[in-house]
Each structure stands twice: as C-alpha cells, then as structure tokens.
Amino acid sequence: ANATGLACAPSEPISLAPGESSTCTAYHVITQGDLDAGMVSNTATAAGDDPGDNPVMDDSDDPDDPTNTDPDGDGDPDDPTNTTLNQDAELQVLKTDLLSYGPDNFLDVGDTIYYTITVMNTGNVTIDNITLTDANAAGLACTPVEPLTLAPGESSTCTAYHILTQGDLDAATVSNTATASGQDPDDNPVTDISDDPDDPTDVDTEGDGEPDDPTVTDLPCISIQAFVYLEGAAILDNGSESYSLPMRKNLNDLRLLPGQAFDDVLFGTVYSPPGQPYNAAPWNYNGTEGDAFDSGGDPNFGDADYPSTVVDWVLVSLRDTPDGAGGPLCQAAALLHNDGHLEFVEGFNCCELDLNASYYLVIEHRNHMIVMSDQPVSIVNKTITYDFRNHQSYIDDPFGFGIFIGQKRILGTLYAMFAGNGNQTMTGSSDTDINFDDRSFWEIVNGTIARYRNGDYNLNGDSNFNDRRVWELNNGKFTSVPRD
Predict the structure, then answer these.
(1) Average pLDDT over residues 354-361
(2) Measured over all CA atoms, what is the biggest interatomic distance in the chain, rounded to whole angstroms?
(3) pTM passes above 0.85
(4) Angle CA(452)–CA(446)–CA(277) in degrees, nearest 5?
(5) Fewest CB within 10 angstroms: 55, 85, 233, 333, which?
(6) Distance CA 95, CA 137 (A)
(7) Residue 381: pLDDT band by 50, 70, 90 thresholds?
(8) pLDDT tens digits for 262-277?
(9) Where are the alpha helices (DSSP H) in 325-455?
(10) Per-residue pLDDT at 136 exceeds 80
C-alpha cells in the first residue's frame, strides 16, 4: 500500500512450486511527511491459493530487523521494512539595515535604522512555532505573523526599527542581532542567530556552518585629526623671544592641570578643580571630557592619569561659514600634546553633518588667540585632517590692509597660536584682540606661583613679569576670526 510501480518476474499472478521464488520490485517517493516523521514504514503482503483453493497469505519481513515479531502467528516473522530518513532541522536568519535621515537630511537623535529580517528554513523538515527576538529593535512584525511554520525552502520576511539615541551617536555605531527559535517535528529546539549578508567576515558563532555576523550600522560621524602649537608653551620662559619644540608641559609636570594635585610646602595640598576649562564664559561649553582626570586631591595620585606629554586643554569646533553664524556645528574639548597633536578623550561625536560638504576647523585656547583653518576642509574617510603647525590661520583681509593676524611664525615655517589673550570677556571684542585689558588681566594674578591661571601666558605655572613680556610681544594684534 505504501509503494508504487510493483513489478515481479515472472509477472503476476505467479505460480510457485515448493522451493521456487519470485523477485519483485517497487518504489516509494519520499514526501515531506516522511521527512518530518523521520522514517518510511513499508509492508508487502503476498496472497495466493493452495491446490484446494484455500487462501495462503504472508506479510513481508525485514531480514535486517532482528525483532522478528509474528503478528499473524504463523511462525514466520513479519517485521515491517522501516527506512530511517536523515533529518536536518536548520533555520537561517539574514538581517539587513537601512539608515534613514530625518527631514533635515542630517543625522540626529530620533532618526531611524530600519531592518529587514528574512527567516528561511534551510533544512529538510518542517519547523513550527518559530518566533523572533531582537533586543535592540522595536516594532518587530512578520508576514505571516508569528509564530511561524516554515516548510523546507520557505521563508518569512520581518521588519523592525531602531531609533537612534545620543549613546548611539557617541559610539558612532549600532550593532544589532535577531534570533529565530522554533521546533522540529520531534519538538526539539531549532535556533539561529542572524547574519548580515553584507558583512564578509562570516563568523560562525553557533558552529552550525552558517555565519552569524551582527548587523552593524556605522553612523557617519566625523573624527578630527589636527595639530596646533601654542606660543605660550613654545616660547622660552625666561622673557626672551626664543622658541623651542616640542612644547613645554610645565603645567602637567607641576601637577597644575585641572584635577591634578601637589603638595605645596607653604600651603599644603593644592588641588585644581577637575573638568575641562571651557565651561565658563565666553565659551560656556559644558562637556564632561575632563571629569575622568581627577586625583581627588590626593598628591599620591597627583598626575590624575593625564598622559605625560599633555600640555593643556583646547576647545575644538566646526563651522560651515567663516563667521560661524548660528554657533558651532560640533564642539569638543581635547588634550593638546607637546608635539601638537590633539587627543579627544571622549571622541568628537559629530554625527549630524553632510559628509560631502567641507567645514572650517576652529581651535580655541583660554589665553591664546582663536585660529581657524584657512579654508574649509573636506571630509575624507569620515575624518577632517588639518595641521595648523604648517598652515597659516584664516585671515579675512580682502583689501590687504594688514591689520589682522592669523598665527605667529615661530621657527622656520612653523606657526603657533598667539599668546597673551587672557581676557576674553570684558568687551565684545576681547576674544579677538590682544590689548591693555589683557595686561590688566595678567596684573590681577601677577605674583601667583604654581597655579592654573589664565594670566599665565607662558604656561609655566607662575604668573610673573615673563608673562607680561609675552603680552608685550603681541599687544595690538587683532584676528578676523570671530567666536561663533
């Protein structure tokens, strides 16, 4: 009953003398039900007549089966011929992403990553009760709806989305994995972790022969690679107009940077409040970059984990026009090292710009003149690269009057930011000029020893006549770069 194409030699009906035999063949086409059952059971029955026309019957026996059951009680075994089928219960989950910008065409908190998740039965048995989980996505919906039942070769398409958070923008990437779970015909669990078909890494986390790369959405965040010199840290601190590189790092060596501490023989422990120094006027930048560098006022931990080559903090920003109308597009405080390179301890976290546009790079220091790239800088591989050490700062002087300055040339072709601009709040132009107000600002702290002061123009930790000398060298200088 469970076979077709039955053919015997000689052909039926057959007459057999004692000891004679006939060989017959038949076949069974395997069905999905057979695979789900994992076995095909088959029994043939021979029926004939003896010389007295009495019926003679026998059910087939599988000679390879030693069970030898005899259900008809005729003394001959009648084990059915059971063919075991290899079952392969496999799911494969593929997950692709699409980053969608908001109506402003910039990447912001609240923008969306859309996911398409395809669940496929790549095995040879039916899998049912299939559900999907996706911890880092919302709005999961499948067609047909969950729980799914998929025959071999069938698939279901699901969708989900992830709304970008500030944490995502800070990390500049979102990683997402979906997991499908179901049951084979014997109720054994079948699972698969999603793979990103666009990722050639093909890591097989589960060891099932199928890749399980997470779907990683790289956000188009911009990083900065920049270099700059400060005149105050490059000029010799003996009152001369001589320069030396790499820059001095006295503030760091003396444990005067924000968050550092040292023992003063006269006044005991001196503890500089932690945090980057641009959280006050005129900058009013409230970044937390400096919070991690904190000795807690313990001189035994006086360096507060600053790298030994750090000179001071600077404030870095981008603008799309020279005048910076509308404020900085992105802004972050950075550590300045003695070779001039900047270190963004919390990243630049600029993820809201057009990667095909160009932007002006601006660097500010608490007692130096603001500088800006001489032209807008293109983004290459999501990075803006600019070296102020060998580029003059932006100067807007279309009529060639020569009243504006950019940077000071200090050694050969090398430039440094002008020092002596300690007062940047008294008037509307205080941040763009060096004048007598900056000398008055220095006079307020003159005589202060071993402290972190904006009037310390040569950045050696002491406010004295040598700082006034730095101011004198630059008094009367103006920049055409406004603070945005």
Answers:
(1) 92
(2) 138
(3) no
(4) 25
(5) 55
(6) 12
(7) confident
(8) 998 888 999 999 999 9
(9) 436-445
(10) yes
Residue extents of the structural domains in the chain: 4-84, 91-218, 223-479
Q: Work out the end-to-end distance of the chain between its first and last CA atoms, rounded to an integer number of angstroms.
A: 89
For the chain, the helix, strand and coil percentages under 3-state DSSP, each to the nearest 5: 10, 35, 55
- For 59-69, write each residue's pLDDT tens digit: 999 999 998 88
- Give the pLDDT confidence score for residue 48 in this predicted structure: 96
Q: In this structure, what DSSP letter does residue 417 have?
A: B
What is the secondary structure of 431-455 as a DSSP string? GGEESHHHHHHHHHHTT--S---TT
Q: Which of 379, 365, 382 is nearest to 311 (CA)?
A: 365
- The CATH number assigned to the domain with range 91-218 reads 2.60.40
Give 102: exposed, middle or buried? Use CB within 10 Å, 0-12, 13-18, 19+. middle
d(CA 419, CA 119): 64
Cβ atoms within 10 Å, residue 385: 15
Report DSSP letters for 321-372, one per residue.
STT-TTS-SEEEEEEEETTSBEE-TT---B-SS-TTSEEEEEEEETTEEEEE
**Residue 464 C-beta-side C-alpha neighbours within 13 Å:** 9
For residue 186, is it left (φ>0), alpha (ψ between -120 and 50) or beta? alpha
